[in-house]
Amino acid sequence: MQHRIIVLGAGYTGAVAAGRLARRLHRDDVAVTLVNAEPDFVERVRMHELAVGRDLRPRPFGEMFAGTGVELRLGKVTGVDADRRTVTVVDADGDAGECGYDTLVYALGSGWDDQGVPGTAEHAHEIASRPGALRLRGRLAELGAGQSVVVVGGGLTGLEAATEIAEARPDLAVTLAARDGLGDWLSDRGRGHLRRVLGKLGVTVHEHTAVTGVGADRVTTADGRTLPAAVTVWTTGFAVHPIARNTTLETTGTGRIVVDGTMRSVSHPDVYAVGDAASATGPGGKPLRMSCASGVPTAWQAADAIAARLTGGKLPNTPIRYFNQCISLGRREGLIQYVTADDRAVSAALTGRLAAAYKELVCKGAAWGVANPLLGLPARRRRVVREAARTGPAAKASA
């Protein structure tokens, strides 16, 4: 009987994990199923580009995984029973069905987080998803010259959104509201370049400004000010998919699955979590932040650990570390902030057109890695050791 591996979610981490597992394991021994609500891959790191009117290259999963042995199941995951080892999936027709697994890779990721701020859910736009980016795209197209756009959040997503909108629509009045100081985590060189670019693009910046309410045409701040906003874009952070919190899996207070160094759940050894869904520890004992930079390596780690455990091989022991933070500042400017292994900025930073080209290369490379899951790895697929693949309570006890 084949060992059933189900991967939930086909973002960067889920798609990479599924492809890597297909490369590591013999098809006669395993069945790898990738469950996703959409039939094609979404380049989430480009949603700010989609929002301003740029069309992205289609990447259908049917083409990407053709010949790999990965089976794609289209549907929305509505539940996980980690004790019975089943997932519930609802297809496009609304029909629900259960899928049993021997090993589960949970990669449902994250979405936008309105943080409970009044009016945000009703009036603000998000770019954490393709539907959200497309809604914003339609709304921006309706705006006339001089109308105001307020981007709330001074992190990487907020910076990319504000500069992208300001460059694509120089006729709009773009404002960035940052809770902390502008780019205060960057090096002096990085902060200086960021300020110059925002100034050149005409973006008004309000630092140390917490937004406490969003209306149809304005936002209000903690200090009592009102900022006009024909459109509000909310980028203050991400919240993980809520399903894991409603299971018996051990999770953090924010709903991330607690895992060990191989991305294996500390409470259910037949479950692995990757990307934003996982609460994993990086260099210096610091939690890995939600990002593609750390997410893809967690997918590599999980896939290699699953393959090793099933085939009796050596477990991976590759520390996950950071190298840089890549920020696009429109199409012609960028900022590559070099960092320590635990994500602290160093003095070195790459700026300007070269940094923009570097960021574009990183985005293309990430998509290429998903679209070519069988390339760049040894060709040999290992056979599953039946003793390692056995399931049930006895296997859990001995794991």
TrEMBL record:
Biological process (GO), any one: aerobic electron transport chain
FAD/NAD(P)-binding domain location: 4-303
Coiled coil: none
Cofactor names: FAD
Entries under InterPro entries matching the protein: FAD/NAD-bd_sf (IPR036188), FAD/NAD-binding_dom (IPR023753), NADH-Q_oxidoreductase (IPR051169)
One Pfam match: Pyr_redox_2
Superkingdom of origin organism: Bacteria
SUPFAM superfamilies, alphabetized: FAD/NAD(P)-binding domain
Keywords of the record: FAD, Flavoprotein, Oxidoreductase
GO molecular function: NAD(P)H dehydrogenase (quinone) activity
Family assignment from sequence similarity: Belongs to the NADH dehydrogenase family.
Full protein name: Oxidoreductase
